[in-house]
Design a protein that fits this description.
single chain, about 80 residues, mainly alpha, 2 helices, about 80% helix
């Protein structure tokens, strides 16, 4: 098992900035999804709740994966 050389601080900053940008984008998407789902649910459309919950779980999983990547790059 060969170890990769550690990234320098100058190499890590743009990677982490990109990851943070993706996390912010996914969180905004998740907030929009929550708002649209609540609007539809309160309007009487009950069928939208389960697909929206699955999409939200997918967003959560993506954010967890990105967090894991940050710990691998930074550690």
């Amino acid at each position: 098992m060969s170890r990769r050389p550690r990234l320098s601080r100058a190499q890590r900053i743009p990677i982490l900035a990109g990851v943070v940008s993706l996390v912010v984008l996914i969180v905004i998407l998740q907030l929009w999804l929550l708002t649209a789902t609540m609007n539809a649910y309160l309007g009487g459309d009950r069928a939208i709740a389960l697909p929206a919950a699955m999409a939200s779980l997918l967003c959560f999983g993506l954010n967890l994966g990105l967090l894991r990547y940050v710990f691998r790059v930074d550690g």
